[in-house]
Specification:
There is one protein chain. This protein is of the alpha/beta class. It has 14 helices and 17 strands. The strands form four sheets. A nine-stranded mixed beta sheet has the order 9-10-8-7-6-5-4-1-11, with helices on both faces. It is globular, with a radius of gyration of 21 Å. The chain starts with a strand and ends with a helix.
Length: about 375
């Protein structure tokens, strides 16, 4: 296998955001030492399969809740030294102090992904976020001051219209911080989330599809005009600041995942860990593999994933050439509608095409 990319899921959060359906563990006091020891034990089980590490991504949950010492201890337990191509830490803004940022940089972190989401205090309260708008600016300043070379902001669009969120104002404040990278997420309503339950009771109404499209295209336009390039449907970067780790996923490179709910992939099969923190921890501490399931991709599944992931990116895919020409006619229709472009033998989607990604990929 010899994957060069490692993901660690850190499940801890102070509270659950209104839209979140991730595998998290809400804890008043985070069991940092116990978690680091368990990840180290899981890593030892698979270390023989691992190659020379190129990227490490600490996602969650809220990895910054591990603090300065916890992130340092986790990096040490994984045998990580400064100098990786990319070491990303997801962080909530309120956790990014100068002291923590300095310790993270010493541990090898060279990319910080901040869960900003919005700068509107009313919206942040509705989301159940634990930071305010000023904390975002303070976090960016601390990261810059302590030498983090790549700072990314997460932003959410397509919020319920009843919130009266001013998207332009949010973009003004985000761009004023001069991030290197922006990850853009359209709000989706999952049934088992607090938001999903409110929608089911008729207490909230999701943004209509037309609003989703309008806001997505507006953000793409603003970021592009400011010098960003959308290299993937949800990710924009200034030149040279694209996410190396995430690109490995889109290229179907092998990767290892550690921690609750983490996924791994070896090129032909995929497996995933127990999602609940308590079950994952019990398995690992009993010296048992925490794997909950596994699938082997059939050739047609692998081909569909290759097409879908390729079309998510600005690089696109080679133009398919079916003998009967029906697909060629369909692609010509996409180009005419402004959803796609063909250049140099490659098919790429435009931002309007990305909004129809599922439909177009399925038709291939």
């Amino acid at each position: 296998m010899n994957p060069r990319h490692l993901y660690v899921h850190v499940p801890f959060c102070r509270r659950r955001c209104t839209y979140c359906d991730f595998s998290i563990a809400v804890r008043r006091v985070v069991p940092v030492g116990r978690f680091v020891a368990a990840v180290a034990a899981e890593h030892r089980r698979v270390a023989a399969e691992a190659g020379t590490l190129s990227t490490l991504y600490l996602g969650g949950g809220t990895p910054s809740l591990l603090g300065a010492e916890g992130v340092t201890a986790l990096a040490r337990a994984l045998g990580v030294a400064p100098g990786l191509d990319e070491f990303t830490l997801e962080a909530n803004p309120e956790d990014v102090t100068p002291e923590a940022a300095a310790a993270w940089v010493r541990a090898g972190v060279n990319r910080l992904s901040l869960g900003a989401q919005s700068f509107d205090p009313h919206v942040l309260r509705w989301m159940h976020r634990t930071h305010d708008a000023d904390a975002i600016a303070s976090a960016v300043a601390a990261a810059r001051r302590e030498g983090v070379p790549n700072v990314s902001l997460d932003l959410i669009f397509a919020l319920p219209e009843a919130l009266r969120r001013d998207l332009d104002a949010d973009l003004d404040r985000a761009l004023a911080l001069e991030p290197d990278h922006v990850s853009l997420y359209g709000l989706t309503v999952e049934p088992d989330t607090p938001l999903g339950k409110r929608v089911a009771r008729g207490e909230a109404t999701p943004a209509p599809d037309a609003k989703y499209e309008e806001e997505y295209l507006a953000v793409v336009g603003r970021l592009t005009a400011d010098g960003f390039r959308f290299y993937e449907v949800s990710n924009a970067a200034r030149p040279g600041f694209e996410a190396v780790h995430n690109r490995a996923y889109w290229r179907l490179a092998p990767y290892l995942g550690l921690g609750p709910s983490a996924h791994s992939f070896d090129g032909t099969s995929r497996w995933w860990n127990e999602a609940a923190f308590a079950r994952w921890l019990a398995r690992v501490e009993a010296d048992a593999a925490p794997v909950a399931g596994r699938e082997i991709l059939r050739p047609e599944q692998a081909r569909l994933e290759e097409l879908y992931l390729g079309l998510r990116t600005a690089a696109g895919i080679p133009v398919p050439e079916p003998p009967d020409g029906r697909l060629a006619a369909a692609i010509a229709g996409w180009v005419g509608a402004g959803w796609a472009a063909v250049d140099g033998g490659r098919l790429t989607l435009t931002p309007r095409g990305w909004l129809r990604l599922d439909e177009l990929a399925a038709s291939l």
